[in-house]
Amino acid sequence: MSQPDSTIAPVIREITPLSDSDCFYLADRHKSSFDFPIHSHPEFELNFIGNGAGVQRTVGDNSETIGDYDLVLITSPNLEHVWEQGDCHSTNIREITIQFTSDVLPESLLRKNQFHSIRQMLERARLGLAFSHLTIMKIYGKLDELTRQQRSFHAVLSFFELLYDLSLADDSRTLSSSSFARIKTSSDSRRVNKVQQYITSHFSEEVRLEQLAELAGMTPVAFSRFFHQRTGRTLSEYIIEIRLGVASRMLIDSTKMVAEICYDCGFNTLSNFNRLFRKHKGCTPTEFRENFNKKKIII
User: Fold this and answer.
1) pLDDT in tens, 118-162
2) Is 1.20.1630.10 the CATH number for 181-294?
3) Which terminus of the chain is less hemmed in, N or C, by CB atoms within 10 Å?
4) Could you say which architecture CATH assigns to the domain 22-174?
């Protein structure tokens, strides 16, 4: 007897209108509803929503209700994302979408000192990068002007300037977890990288502080303080984030039972898994799977 297929139908892969001869594609729409399903595409995307309070935005395993304004940069080719109607009742939503490919800003250019901040922003945006209301207000004039720019060369210069201004914002935040997005995190600390690589490979097992401290060549107390200073999270917070990200990915990419996923990801009890999942994701694992699958299209 053949085994049942344990995979779920994939998220729709969008084919964007961007041509090989253009630096970027820009669409400026006024709409009253959202009807495009959750999707991914190889192109980078900067997406602005105006007058959209109540819209539900999902990027990877992060789902939030946005305010009047929303601006997100996504630079991962496989990171699922969607903006849905949610509780938005506006009849005049403005959506500005800019899509561009990585070769517009090649690595040889990003290595230059003048592009350092843009390079860092593009790296962080592999998890989806949301900008604050204050930053959106600062750059909105340039974004609006870009939609009306008629001369293509000047439009490219304006676009680069817009990216540069966004790269200087110190209040942007990443959205998806790295384990859900299947993106390796990196640090400028060799010790932190070594520990993170170990956790990524052994998240399903018991991970002990003493073991990681020995790996880093430090005492447990010193290592705990060091890890928090370098990552902004406690060791336990980081391990939980990795495990929940992997669990979220398994919930949408497989038909495994929730209990099976719980233990596969290193959680000791189903009740603890459900409690932590609800705390961090705002819903139960079952609700997460159901809500995510509702956004999909079978292709």
Assistant:
1) 999 999 999 999 999 999 999 999 999 999 987 789 999 999 999
2) no
3) N
4) Sandwich (2.60)
